[in-house]
């Protein structure tokens, strides 16, 4: 009996490894190898080893695009946190039958393709769109706002698209938060601000970090939102990679950019991992 | 010392449609150790939360130290609470947990250091001041929770079943520690428990609660020896209960019939003829006699019975005696140097009586 179950355990673990090997390790290896090859106008790549793809990245234009992407992803993460925290807190604190309904509402947008939702945002933001029509009708403005095809539009799109990734881990964390801590703090004479800063934030930090990682990473590599909402004016790292592959036909450069981004993000996770306590780690895993 | 520190007048609380606390009026004296005792769900926590200010009463007024605090939030009431689950902040060390209240009140760090160190010494946790709560045992966490509350020098400490999470031995020693701490601090403790033994052994007064109201408030001796209701008699300790009717009354006496015998008892509460009553007898007030220990003349005023079970308990032996009506009663006999006759065996015929006047007579209540 025991032998049998351990056989299945070994088998299933090996299947997982095989799966990861085929669908994660091989593409990553291919990407990594390609980044050291040379561009060939007539084929996908030429098999000549070089480091020139990486040297090219020090080009001023690429560096500034990287900085822009980090800024956008960072801003997006902070805004998601500011909106998502009270949101998750309210859901987690509301009566259980309400909270499951509210959670459902958070998840519903996932049922529609993110691309389609981005088009919907275009419809809202454009000069003759829903938002402007409303504001004009209410008399708050007398000229349509030019939001679409701006940095602001990209930011709105990113926040809208990624907000659930912030809310869900925060909710999972805040839900476990024992309300007695709030009463204990109040009992000891803490006002709500002290309670929030000294008790609530530290105790929900694992959720804050998990949510931030889940928002920041995809925000770094967004490519269709900047194109659709930013009107290709606001090129980001994701667009750069897409451009190298599909337009410039420079796969080695595209893969080199990908490798650098992956390393950057990996470094970020590693820094968090080593600074976090064991308990928080379990929560992230 | 004898002034009232807490006074509740007609305080009640309803949750949705459930009356968790009926209108309650109670005064608690300064320096008193008072216990709220009752089964789970009887409203102990509700009463405590109304006093602490975490809940607002629907009716009534609450005074603390002569001041109307009915509309004041918890932090303005000069009392502190020890929570059932301790609610220690898991991300803070023992020291920071205890210092939390003082820091909120902007006490200087040197003063904080002095007071926290003192309190930690008092609860014998000085050496563990930089541990996190998760690195402490249940008893140690309990002491941190108490230290965190008393460091603020409250005039009243509220404790909601603080010992219920501890195992038996630890609970016993914490009971002693808590009682000593209360004497040393000289402040009022309002202690909640569902354990009657704990309540009797620790308290100056016990409030016995039932379905949202206080059935009886009195010293442990009062509530044990003079229970005010069947519920209290049954909840506190063991009780043998006979339900019967008064046959006649004369000269401060009343006559009843138990097991076919007419028995005259003191009529302390002016019961009347035909009134139905409960006669309550504590096991230790009942004496059991062997058949050859008494004369037929003596047995006239005793009840016959058969020993059904003998339970040795060290200092006492408990006997379950079956009466002719099949009713079983519990008698506790104390071992006594000059009484060799305590080796009862089952099926033995015995006679029982009780110390006259030690029975409690209560008006009839519809039992559940
Ligand atoms: N916040 C609340 N909402 C609804 N019902 C409650 C609430 N708090 C307590 N109750 C109800 O009031 C009754 C008394 O509860 P409680 O005071 O906690 O009892 P105890 O502490 O004696 O076990 C229980 O039946 C409980 O279900
Ligand atoms: Mg309770």
Helical element count of chain B?
9
Q: Tell how many strands the DSSP assignment of chain B holds.
A: 20
Number of domains of chain A: 1
How do the helices and strands follow one another from N- to C-terminus of chain B? EEEHEEEHHHEHEHEEHHEEEEEHEEEEE
Q: Structural class of the helices, strands and pairings of chain A?
A: mainly alpha
* CATH fold description of the largest domain in chain B: Rossmann fold
Description:
The complex is a heterodimer of chains A (285) and B (368). By secondary structure, chain A is mainly α. Chain A has a single domain (60-284), classed as Orthogonal Bundle (MetI-like fold), CATH 1.10.3720.10. In chain A, 76% of the residues lie in helices and 1% in strands. Chain A is built from 13 helices and 2 strands. Chain A has a two-stranded antiparallel ribbon with strand order 1-2. In chain A, helix 3 runs antiparallel to helix 4, helix 3 crosses helix 7 (151-175) and helix 11 (237-246) runs antiparallel to helix 12. The longest helix of chain A has 34 residues, at 60-93. Chain A is globular and about 70 Å long. The relative contact order of chain A is 0.12. In chain B, helix 2 (94-104) packs parallel to helix 4 and helix 3 packs across helix 4 (138-150). Chain B is an alpha+beta fold. Chain B folds into 2 domains: 4-234, Rossmann fold, CATH 3.40.50; 240-363, OB fold (Dihydrolipoamide Acetyltransferase, E2P) (Beta Barrel), CATH 2.40.50. Chain B has 9 helices and 20 strands. Chain B is elongated, with a radius of gyration of 25 Å. Chain B has helices spanning 44-52, 94-104, 109-122, 138-150, 168-185, 196-202, 220-225, 230-235, 296-299, and strands spanning 4-15, 18-29, 33-37, 59-64, 67-68, 79-82, 156-160, 188-193, 205-210, 213-218, 240-250, 253-258, 261-266, 276-281, 286-290, 303-312, 316-322, 328-334, 349-354, 360-363. The model of chain B has no long low-confidence stretch (mean pLDDT 91). Chain B has a 6-stranded mixed sheet with strand order 6-7-8-3-9-10, with helices on both faces. A 5-stranded antiparallel sheet of chain B has the order 13-12-11-14-20, with no helix packed on it. Classes of the chains: A mainly alpha (285), B alpha+beta (368). The A-B interface holds A 178, 180-181, 183-191, 194, 198-199, 202-203 and B 52, 54, 73-75, 80-81, 83, 85, 87-91, 100-101, 104-105, 148-149, 152. Bound molecules: adenosine-5'-diphosphate and magnesium ion (MG). Adenosine-5'-diphosphate binds at residues 15-16, 18, 20, 38, 40-46 of chain B.
């Amino acid at each position: 009996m025991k032998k049998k179950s351990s056989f299945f355990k070994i088998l299933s673990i090996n299947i997982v490894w095989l799966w990861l090997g085929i669908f994660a390790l091989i593409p990553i290896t291919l990407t990594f190898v390609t980044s050291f090859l040379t561009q060939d106008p007539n084929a996908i790549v030429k098999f000549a080893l070089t480091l020139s793809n990486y040297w090219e990245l020090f080009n001023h234009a690429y560096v500034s695009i990287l900085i822009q992407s980090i800024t956008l992803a960072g801003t997006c993460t902070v805004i998601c946190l500011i909106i998502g925290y009270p949101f998750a807190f309210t859901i987690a604190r509301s009566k259980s039958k309400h909270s499951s309904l509210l959670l459902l509402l958070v998840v519903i947008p996932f049922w529609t393709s993110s691309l389609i939702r981005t088009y919907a945002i275009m419809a809202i933001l454009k000069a003759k769109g829903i938002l402007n029509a409303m504001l004009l009708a209410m008399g708050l403005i007398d000229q349509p706002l030019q939001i679409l095809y701006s940095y602001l539009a990209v930011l709105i799109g990113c926040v809208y698209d990624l907000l659930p990734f912030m809310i869900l881990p925060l909710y999972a964390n805040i839900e476990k938060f024992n309300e007695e801590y709030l009463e204990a703090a109040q009992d000891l004479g803490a006002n709500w601000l002290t309670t929030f800063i000294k008790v609530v934030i530290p105790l929900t930090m694992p959720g804050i970090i998990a949510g931030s990682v889940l928002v920041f990473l995809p925000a770094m590599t967004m490519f269709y939102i900047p194109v659709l909402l930013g009107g290709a004016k606001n090129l980001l790292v994701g667009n750069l990679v897409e451009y190298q592959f599909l337009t410039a036909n420079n796969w080695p450069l595209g893969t080199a950019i990908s490798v650098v981004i992956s390393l950057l993000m990996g470094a970020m996770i590693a820094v968090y991992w080593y600074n976090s306590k064991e308990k928080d780690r379990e929560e992230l895993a | 010392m004898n002034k009232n520190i807490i006074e509740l007048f007609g305080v009640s609380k309803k949750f949705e449609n459930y009356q968790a606390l009926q209108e309650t009026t109670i005064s608690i004296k300064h320096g008193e150790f008072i216990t709220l005792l009752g089964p789970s769900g009887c409203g102990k926590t509700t009463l405590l939360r109304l006093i602490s200010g975490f809940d607002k009463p629907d009716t009534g007024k609450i005074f603390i130290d002569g001041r109307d605090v009915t509309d004041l939030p918890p932090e303005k009431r000069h009392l502190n609470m020890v929570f059932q689950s301790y609610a220690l902040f898991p991300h803070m060390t023992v020291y920071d947990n205890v210092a939390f209240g003082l820091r909120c009140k902007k006490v200087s760090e040197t003063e904080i250091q002095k007071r926290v160190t003192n309190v930690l010494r008092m609860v014998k946790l000085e050496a563990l001041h930089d541990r996190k709560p998760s690195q402490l045992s249940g008893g140690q966490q309990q002491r941190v929770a108490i230290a965190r509350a008393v460091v603020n020098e409250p005039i009243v400490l509220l404790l909601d079943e603080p010992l219920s999470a501890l195992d038996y031995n630890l609970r016993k020693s914490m009971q002693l520690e808590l009682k000593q701490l209360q004497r040393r601090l000289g402040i009022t403790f309002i202690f909640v428990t569902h354990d009657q033994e704990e309540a009797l052994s620790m308290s100056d007064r016990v409030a016995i609660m039932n379905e949202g109201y206080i059935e009886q408030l009195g010293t442990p001796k009062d509530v044990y020896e003079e229970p005010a209701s069947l519920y209290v008699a049954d909840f506190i300790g063991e009780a043998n209960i006979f339900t019967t009717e008064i046959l006649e009354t004369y000269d401060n006496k009343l006559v009843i019939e138990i097991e076919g015998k007419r028995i005259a008892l003191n009529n302390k509460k002016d019961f009347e003829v035909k009134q139905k009553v409960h006669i309550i007898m504590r096991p230790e007030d009942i004496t059991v006699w062997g058949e050859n220990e008494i004369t037929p003349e003596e047995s006239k005023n005793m009840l016959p019975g058969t020993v059904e079970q003998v339970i040795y308990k060290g200092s006492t032996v408990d006997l379950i005696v079956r009466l002719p009506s099949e009713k079983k009663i519990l008698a506790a006999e104390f071992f006594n140097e000059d009484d060799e006759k305590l080796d009862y065996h089952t099926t033995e015929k015995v006679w029982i009586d009780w110390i006259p006047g030690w029975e409690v007579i209560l008006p009839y209540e519809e039992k559940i």
